[in-house]
Amino acid sequence: MTLLEISDLYAYHGQLAAISALDLTVEEGQTLAVIGANGAGKSTLLRTIAGVMPAGAGSIRFDGRDITRLPAHHRVAAGIALVPEGRRLFPSLSVEENLLVGGYRRRPGPWNVDRVMELFPWMAQRRRQSAAGLSGGEQQAVAIGRALISNPRLLLLDEVSLGLAPVVVRRIYQVLPEILRAGTTALLVEQDVAQALRVADHVHCLLEGRTVLRGRPGELAREQIERAYFGVDARRQPAAAPGGSGSADASDPAGAGDPAGASDPAGAGDESGAIPRQAGPNPAGSGASEPSASEPGPAGAGPAGKADEEVTG
Ligand SMILES: Nc1ncnc2c1ncn2[C@@H]1O[C@H](COP(=O)(O)OP(=O)(O)OP(=O)(O)O)[C@@H](O)[C@H]1O
Ligand SMILES: [Mg+2]
Question: Is residue 117 part of a domain?
Fold first, then answer.
């Protein structure tokens, strides 16, 4: 059954069409990964689906119902939950309080505070600790738990691996099968392409807000993905690479000139052949700027940048 159906969607930041003519479907129970370079429109897409950004044109149908103009809190009640880029926890609230924030407009279902703490066992002992004292990976786990507590049918995950060491990323992704088993469908944005290909049933690649490639991971050649990710023109004319500054990445998508993975924070040290993220002054993305009433927390909550720390327990 088709759970999410997006047709001819446009979304704007001022005059800029961050999403253009986008068609996308997600089948219930499946995992769709949206990939693309910095500024491709990935966060804009998730935010538009969650309703924290308006659609400029086109339609979004969820479980057969047109939700294009539905306010964000009604979408939560309908079963859509966003784990936003940058986590957006309340740093001064405890772990448990941050989780409970997600319970507002909660649907009935398997997820509650205790169940989330079973998923991430370290949380139980630290439930009263403030979120500000958590490592980046721990904060990410709390952000995922907060979304789960609303018992979503569709979980939107925006770059859960960003800024985390590979070992931490693996631990975060280890919980995905259990989340899917509980009946949730996942639409995730991931800049670590190798990670996306590992977990997704379908991959959808964006370039400057438009679909440039889609398919099942097994059907897509690495070369095809690289070309789509950076755009064929970007390969020929590195100086004109979208969002780039003529960086080595644009002319060298295979990353041969970037053995340390310096432009690929999440994939650093990962030898799985991740396509490097384009270098940019602010890889955390511009989409995390304006806090919204329907989003849970302030931007850049606390020491989210404490990268490379491991999730305990
Ligand atoms: N609040 C904003 N105001 C103006 N322009 C914005 C805003 N947020 C994003 N943009 C622009 O919209 C485009 C898409 O941005 P978006 O954040 O959706 O991309 P992304 O694929 O999530 O990138 P990243 O990988 O950096 O997170 C970019 O050109 C970006 O500069
Ligand atoms: Mg983004």
Answer: no
